[in-house]
Design a protein that fits this description.
Number of helices: 12
Largest sheet: 6 strands, mixed
CATH class of the largest domain: Alpha Beta
Low-confidence stretches: 336-341
Number of strands: 13
CATH superfamily of the largest domain: P-loop containing nucleotide triphosphate hydrolases
Oligomer: single chain
Helix content: 25-40%
Order of helices and strands: EHEEHEHEHHHEHEHEEHEHEEHEH
Amino acid sequence: MLAIDVSDLRKQFKVQKNREGLKGALKDLFKREHTEVAAVKDISFQIPQGEICGYIGENGAGKSTTIKMLTGILVPTSGKILVNGYVPYKEREEFVRGIGVVFGQRSQLWWDIGVIESFRLLRKVYRVSEADFRARLDELVETLQLQELLNRPVRKLSLGQRMRCELVAALLHQPSILFLDEPTIGLDIVVKTEIREFLKKLNREHGTTILLTTHDLQDIEALCSRVIMLDDGRIIYDGGLDELKDRWGKGREVQFQFNDPVAIADLSRLTEGLEVRWSKENELTAKVWIPRELNVSEVLSRVVGTKDISDIKIFETNTDEIVREIYQSGSAAAPVGSVSP
């Protein structure tokens, strides 16, 4: 069964046009002009139950607008949305019981009361029985190590502590789908790692479907096997993260640290017949560029067996560089001339 089914989804907003000059300002007082701006342009995608999917794009690409339509906050201009079999903006009461939402820059916790009191209020909102609430809360508090935070007012929590509490608040009613909009924004690397591990465990043990929007591509690499890429309100890529890397990766570089001075000519002879390129950094250090079609082990076997080596490092094109190049080109189609460094 599909957790999310989106077809030809579109969202347009009316934006006021401000005319220039004093005369224009006076005219705007009596008769305002508007223009239609499309934030999401006829997108379609499906997410099966139990999948962790990354939903990425630059600022203004339409990510948050999509999430708000999927969670029922915004009504689409046109198109079809089904989340857990419900139309989000029509069947609100039944729909919200099956979803959890975390917005990185907005809180669903009450600012001046203890964290546990917020959780109790949310239990009543979602109509969770006392027994289920207690069992779920104990599990989440132990996993996220929140025992010492439960009686603190939310305003006295650090950002990392608050985000862990936000996750608990979104999961108290055991939703089958979790929407995360920039959940790790502003967090340090330790807290980010803890949240990523928690989300992987949640998906593995409970089969929770997760749709994640983020600007931190390390979140995507750590959690998602699939990524949907949005640009100017349109989907420009929908597929596996590994496939995206294979399509756009420019190969790998291997750095060798030798114990004795080496010459480029000698190294080139060792890899004769292979489409690789050597460069020398100093007397003892050289790099070889290997196209993505060639297995790294084939190059290593020729060099390691004949040279005295103290260290080897392998460098790959990272996801940040790949995504940046895709946005600059405006297309996720395979780049021309991508086989050379």
